[in-house]
Amino acid sequence: MREPVFVKQNAQKWQRFENSQGQGPDELADSFIQITDDLAYAKTFYPKSKTTAYLNGLAGRFHQSIYKNKSEKGNRFISFWKYELPLLFYKHRMPLLYAFAFFMVFCLIGALSAKYDENFIRLILGDRYVDETNANIARGEPFGVYNSQSEALMFLGIAANNIYVSLVTFVSGIIFSVGSVYHLFQNGVMLGAFQYFFFSKGLGMQSVLVIWIHGTLEISAIVIAGGAGLVLGNSFLFPKTYTRMVSVRKGASEGIKIAIGLVPIFITAAFFEGFVTRHTDMPIWLSVSILASSLLFIIWYVVIYPRKLNNTLNGK
């Protein structure tokens, strides 16, 4: 892109950013992100131009406004969750949507495969798990696996494993996005077969009320991690107006922010699985309340709030 075209496309936005300097640090967070993105582009293609010098000065003023005192870390922490992460969700809403669509298709494949091949469930879930669950069903405790160890150990083990899975799913995206799709395939097929297993035993709705207490957050976060992996992979495949190296660095930075942003969700899901799901005889209203609250939170924080925030910041 020629420099005059770049300036023409962004001049009005930069002017608006300059006029917003009197706002608080949180309100400046999104502007600062966009300015540093434009500065990185300008440094790449117009390293000695007046445009680059102007953006460098503007970014410097934003930095001083946002990080001007010792409350910097606190402000940065709050602005990340309140502004930066939701805006990344909105910016990369299409990769997130693709990840969700892939995952749903893979779940369907897993369920249909389990339905038409009686050995598929054992292949995917393992003989040990299937035998143990069948034994629990015979004893009248179909979900006894969730109270088979102490709460604390279960919580720590599940939290660590889920965070590991999300990071692997994200990092695998560097393999032309195929790596993340493969991990979505693994988890989707497993979930489909797993859920069909309980429905085939006449325990479908009961399994939803028990397992999805923690599964709503856990599965949602895995899908979002897959979307972050697509962001990384697509930055290499489709650099657009950036050089491939600049595009990959940008994709990696934004993708890892999304992946790291999932950590509290995984920890909450692990807490539910370790301390709450084991109470399989809890009232239905309580189970539904936890499940619905988790689902509504994901929909609000990943879809509704990011769109509303983007529209507000852009004066729509």
TrEMBL record:
The chain crosses the membrane at residues 96-114, 163-184, 196-213, 219-238, 258-276, 282-303. Keywords: Membrane, Transmembrane, Transmembrane helix. InterPro entries: SpoIIM-like (IPR002798). This is Stage II sporulation protein M.
